[in-house]
């Protein structure tokens, strides 16, 4: 969902031990790939839950809300760790980008990371501000502050919804750009984030 590999960071020598030189030059490292697709799936699933949990009756509605809150806590840990990995351990392709391409891609990456961080904070502010606990697999995490005025809670709720739509819109644009690279420009941009294919041998 989010572009990777454009924030500055070191290139660990240990990454070359499990891949060939060609793979090292053309693919992201496995932790980056796993966290990319995991966070993409969780964010899209979060959006679907938030937009549809009012449809089913209460038992299912409650399970959807708990799932949304639980995934929110997971993303609270996953996103900062993913950013730390990108800055310190992940593989980078900065030198392969033209200056203008690098500018727009870094801008997109920074915007998405920033919006996701804001969305997470707004989720806590909305829930805790309404005097409700965050449920993490049924474990209740209570608010560290007193309930906020109704107008403030409604403001956080509205911003949370708008930010979610903005994230999904930018993510769709990012996915479309990746498909253009794959099928129109026919370069290796999308392939960098795909799992390594196991070569087949002839019988």
From TrEMBL:
Its cofactor is heme b. Residues 27-195 form the Cytochrome b561 bacterial/Ni-hydrogenase domain. It is a multi-pass membrane protein. Keywords: Cell membrane, Electron transport, Heme, Iron, Membrane, Metal-binding, Transmembrane, Transmembrane helix, Transport. The lineage of its organism: Bacteria, Pseudomonadati, Pseudomonadota, Alphaproteobacteria, Acetobacterales. Belongs to the cytochrome b561 family. The chain crosses the membrane at residues 33-50, 62-83, 103-126, 133-150, 162-180. Residues 1-23 are annotated as: Disordered. This is Cytochrome b. It is found in: Cell membrane.
């Amino acid at each position: 969902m989010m572009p990777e590999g454009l924030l500055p960071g070191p290139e660990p020598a240990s990454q070359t031990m499990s891949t060939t030189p060609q793979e090292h030059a053309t693919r992201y490292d496995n932790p980056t790939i796993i966290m990319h697709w995991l966070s993409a799936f969780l964010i899209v699933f979060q959006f679907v839950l938030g937009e549809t949990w009012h449809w089913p009756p209460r038992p299912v509605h409650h399970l959807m809300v708990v799932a949304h809150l639980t995934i929110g806590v997971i993303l609270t840990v996953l996103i900062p760790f993913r950013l730390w990995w990108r800055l310190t351990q992940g593989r980078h392709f900065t030198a392969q980008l033209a200056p203008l391409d690098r500018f727009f891609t870094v801008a997109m990456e920074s915007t998405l990371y920033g919006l996701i961080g804001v969305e997470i904070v707004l989720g806590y502010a909305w829930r805790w501000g309404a005097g409700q606990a965050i449920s993490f697999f049924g474990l209740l995490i209570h608010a560290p502050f007193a309930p906020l005025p109704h107008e403030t809670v409604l403001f956080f709720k509205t911003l949370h919804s708008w930010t979610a739509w903005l994230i999904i819109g930018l993510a769709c644009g990012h996915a479309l750009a990746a498909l253009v690279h794959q099928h129109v420009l026919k370069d290796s941009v999308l392939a960098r984030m795909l799992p390594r294919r196991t070569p087949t041998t002839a019988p």
